[in-house]
Every structure is written in structure tokens, then in C-alpha cells.
Amino acid sequence: MHGFGDKVSLIWAVADLLRGDFRQSEYGRVILPFLVLRRIDQVLAPTRDAVRRVDAAFPAVATPPDLRERALTGASGLSFYNTSALDLASAVGDDGHVAANLEAYVDGFSPNVRDIMAAFRFKAQIERLAKARLLYKVARRFLSIDLDPYRRDKAGEILRDADGTPEPNVTNHEMGYVFEELIRKFSEQSNETAGEHFTPREVIGLMVELLFAEDREVLQSKTAVRSIYDPACGTGGMLSVAEEHLAQINPAAGLDVFGQELNPESYAICKADMLIKGHDADNIKLGNSFSADGLPDLEAEYLISNPPFGVDWSKVDGPVRKEHALGEEGRFGPGLPRKNDGSLLFLLHMLSKMRPAKAGGSRLAIVFNGSPLFTGAAGSGESEIRRHILENDWLEAIVALPDQMFYNTGISTYVWVLSNRKAPARVGRVQLIDGSEMYQKMRKSLGDKRKELGPDDIAGLVALYGALEPGPRVKIVDNEEFGFHRITVERPLRLDFCASEERIARLEGERGWQNLARSRKKGAAGQKEIEAGVALQDAISQALHGMGDEVYMARPPFVKALKAAFAAQGLKKVPAGALKAVLSALGARNPDAAVCQKKGAPEPDTDLRDYENVPLTESIDAYMKREVLPFVPDAWVDASKTKVGYEIPFTRYFYRYEPPRPVAEIDAELRAAAAKIQGMLAEVLG
What we know:
Blueprint (H helix, E strand, L loop, with lengths): L3 H9 L1 H5 L8 H18 L3 H10 L7 H12 L11 H5 L5 H10 L3 H9 L2 H10 L3 H9 L28 H18 L11 H12 L3 H4 L5 E6 L6 H13 L4 E8 L2 H13 L7 E3 L15 E4 L11 H8 L18 H9 L11 E7 L1 H4 L6 H11 L3 E6 L12 E7 L9 E6 L5 E7 L2 E4 L2 H13 L6 E5 L4 E8 L4 E3 L3 H5 L5 H4 L8 H23 L9 H14 L7 H11 E3 L7 E2 L2 E2 L7 E6 L4 H8 L8 E2 L5 E4 L3 H4 L9 H23 L1
């Protein structure tokens, strides 16, 4: 490119005109749509007359829309066009009519460009600039910036090489660089947007390298054409970096890019960037990927994303649960995570876009925080999603990144790599890579970002991934090791019973006892029911007080004595709720008492209930014999409550024991610190 830095500086200098009337965070909303407009205007210049002739020959009122669209794009030779009698220069020529002219000019574009300008809210920006008396100045400034794809002579003719090839001025690829550099600058200038739709380029670079690592030989084919999809594409940074890396591997390779974005402004930037680079901009969709999948039939070879951490999916609860209910026919059939963290929903959505293995399969890279590794107990949505992934053997690797890598958070993050076409050496296994110490310090912090991956760090991580060999930074784990049985360990309930004054007093706190003196009926009928209940309470209380202080070490003989006491008071039938309340109040746990039975089986003591995680690789019976029964011989497993769970305790695999410092050393330091403080106090006090 001729004068890349100069062009960026010229465009960036427009911010000087906006200062005072616009906040820093708003500069991009003005500069980026004007940049798109200027580029497209110059790209369309050579075919403008041809498009106008076709427009006249195929009027909208008399031509089928599809036929007219094909004719106009055919005349422009591109996926977009403009039928207006104006161009950007003529629209800006008259200071008094710039606003109306620009609106008319934008209305003449093809639907895809109008969609971009609508997402930019360009007409609102025109109105605001006009009120601030800045519209003419800003528009004229952009007319002075040359973004023509080809070099031209003073007469406007394209300059050509000796063999007739047009001399490039600003190629689509170079224009993409300008666009991305401006986005980066806007992100740096505005803390309120930095990080929301801007992933550090070196992190994207690592993800793309991991995606392409096992396909480099195939990608070097002259006919290589691949597709890539990002369901939370933001401004398109991941798609752009993937394209750059593929071009480095094979300049002749093609990459079809697809994406979806929820934020209208980010969507407009991404779609404009793709349009500028010559991609089909209609492959970028606006909307929520969960509730309104813009590309329902897409199957991509590569998938990549950095979805928002801890995204709340409450607003799309209905559509998500509807698809979950479809089971395997829906994207979210395996499970639903908690409402305040939909990260794993993005992963399920991406998995639904993978090509079948028999059709070549797909590879996927996604950035998560630590939560998806372990959040959720056995049987929960998160655990079931992990189970779905691991039992299908899709998880290839997880790479731990250093902390302080992102602009809006300093937490640790992880890159997950998944594929439904694993290499034979990876089948049935997951590679864990600890890259937390592989980074270089930034010379200047950017928000929460203080560290970055240098070229050597990326190369080192990719080399570790490719080698697939265990070591200090790499662990190779069988899929089954991440699974476990969540068992419920029960112990028998042992109670003694006694109708002592202390225990009888506890009846007042039992709900079943309290309900005797209540009624749902109103009026006289309700009052009568309450009076009957109070009378029953009195009769039961008298019966209990007459039983004495004998302690029963088993429940059956106590129940027999209790019924005899009730009969002595003339109580033929006591409500089940009241009887349950009496037994609860008069019973007390006693390890020497007999086991309480229920339907011929020991009744479990909920206070002694415990839970254990038993690895899937081990027998539950063997685990009980080794870990539980030697300490509590009367314990048993309630098999009806056993659940299968999956978690990935990443840090446990890289834990290194560090012995505590000697007490004498710590004591010496404390004494030295105390002596120093005493000396300082002595100086102050004289």
C-alpha cells in the first residue's frame, strides 16, 4: 500500500473536527461509515454509468426484483451498486444541501450497503453533524483521502504495468488493514467499548494457528477453499485474522467467512469490513445467535469465537428451552447452563454448525473463562454439556492463557479446541497445555491488559500442541478420567424416644402440631375446626405427660406405648401429621439405639447423608470398600440417586507442591520487622 500510515493518520485526523461536539467513544460512529462510503464510492466509479443505464432499462416498478438485482450487480461486477444520479463528490458539492444529497445518495445503494448504513445509524449522524455545522467539513475531508483500488493519472485513467496489469493503490486486503487499525484506535481511546468487541490479535492468532495446525498440507492446495464461522463476530477481527493466516499459508486459497453479531454497530463494522475486502457481506447476520439463528443451514469447516464471559440468556429463555426440548433435533438438546452464564450455549450452537465427519468434518476454537471447566454438579446442564462433548470424543485440547490478557478483564482464560475429525493419535484423549507463564509484559497497559503473547510464545504453544507429548506444560488425559459417578452415601437413622417434659415442649415447633389449631375454612365452620384441633392438642399432651420418662431404644415399642397412652385418653385416631410431629419431637439421635426401619429397610439419616465422587474408571463397590466402609461399616449407596458427571479440573493436573518455609525462618523475619518498627518509634518519640 502507498502510504498506509499516512492514510490512517489522515482518516484519524477527522477526530480533530469532532472534538467538543462528540465524545471520544462516538468518533467511530462518524468516521467508520464515512470511510465505508468513500471506499465504496471509488470502487464503483468505473461502472457507475453502466449501472445507471441498467437501472433505466430495468425499472423497479416493471422488473422482478431478482432479475433487476442480477442485472445491476452484473453491471457493477460486484455484490453491491448505486443507482443514484449522484456520487459522493457531487453530493458534497453544495454546502447548503449536503444532508439531503447524502441521504439521497445512500438511498441509491444496493440493499446490503443500505443495511450497513442503517446499522451505523448514518442518517442520524448526518443530522447531528449538520446541527453542529460539521457535515460539510467532515465530508470534504473524506473526499481528500484517496482509497481508490487502483492508481490513476490526472485524467482519471488507471495506470498499468508493461503487461497491462492495473497498478494497485489500496487493495481490498490493505483496506481491511486500514479499517482494523482504526477500530483498534477507537477501542484504545474508549474504555467503555474496549474489550466488548475487540479480542487481542495475538490471541486470535494463536487460535487460528491451532485451528489450521493439522491441516497445513491440505490448505496448500491450489484449489483450497474453506469456510469459517463466528457466532459472536463483533467487528470481525477473528474472521480477518483467519483470512490473513490462511493467505500466509497459501495466497491462492479461498476463505468464505460467515458471522452473526447482536450489537448493530459492531455488525455494521464487520459487514462493511467484509464488503470492503470483497467477501459476500450478506454472510454476516444481525441478531441473537441463540434465538434467531441467521445461518440455520450453515456447515463450516472452521469455527472460532470469543463469546462474552458470563452472558445472561434470560431474555431468550423461551426459544432456547424450546430447542432444548427437541433433544438431538435442537442445538441445545444436551443441556442448559445456568441463566447468568450462557458461554456453553455458544459452544453448543457452534457444534451444530460442524460439517459431518464423513463430509470432511470441522475444527473449532473458542475462548472461555474458567467457569465452563467445572461449574455445575453431576446432572446439571453444564455437566451434561461436558459429558456430551467428551463422550462424543470432540475435545482435542485446552490451552490455559496467562491472566491479564484481555482489555476488560484480568481473569485467567482458556482456549478450547474441538474437532469431529480427530487425528488417530488424539482419539479418546484430551491434551491440556499450561501456557499461563508464556507471555511478555506490555510496555503500556491497555485497560486490564498487561500481558501479551509474543511470536515465540505462540510458536511455542503451537509446537507443544503439535508434539502431543506429556511434559511439565502438557498433560495427556483419557476422556473417561474427567467423568465420575456422584453417589449418595446413606447411614441408618438411629433414634431413642422419651416423653420427657423437655421433648414434649419441642412439639410447639413442629408444623404438623401447629396445623392442628389452624383451618382454611372461614366463619363458624373454621372456628369450630380450630376449637376441635385445640381440644385434640390438649388430649395428646395429657397422654404424653402420662407416659413417664422411660427411654425407648427402638421405635416400634415406643409407638406401641404411645398408642396405648392415646387410647387411655379416648383417642381412637390421631391424624398422620400430628403423629409424625410427636415422633419427631420425642425422638433424639442416639448411636446406641436400634435402626429405624421403613417398609422393611433401614431408614436413612438425612443428617448423616454424604456425597462422594467416584471416578468412572473405578468400581463404586471397590471405592466403598476402600474409602467408606472401613470408617462407617453401616453405610450404603442409594443407587437410585447416582448421577454421572463430568468436570475438567485443569489446575489439578499442573499442581506442584511447595513446602512451607521453616518456622525458624518466618520467626526470624518477624523479629527483624519488630526490631525495625521499634527503632522507627524510638526515632519519632525521641
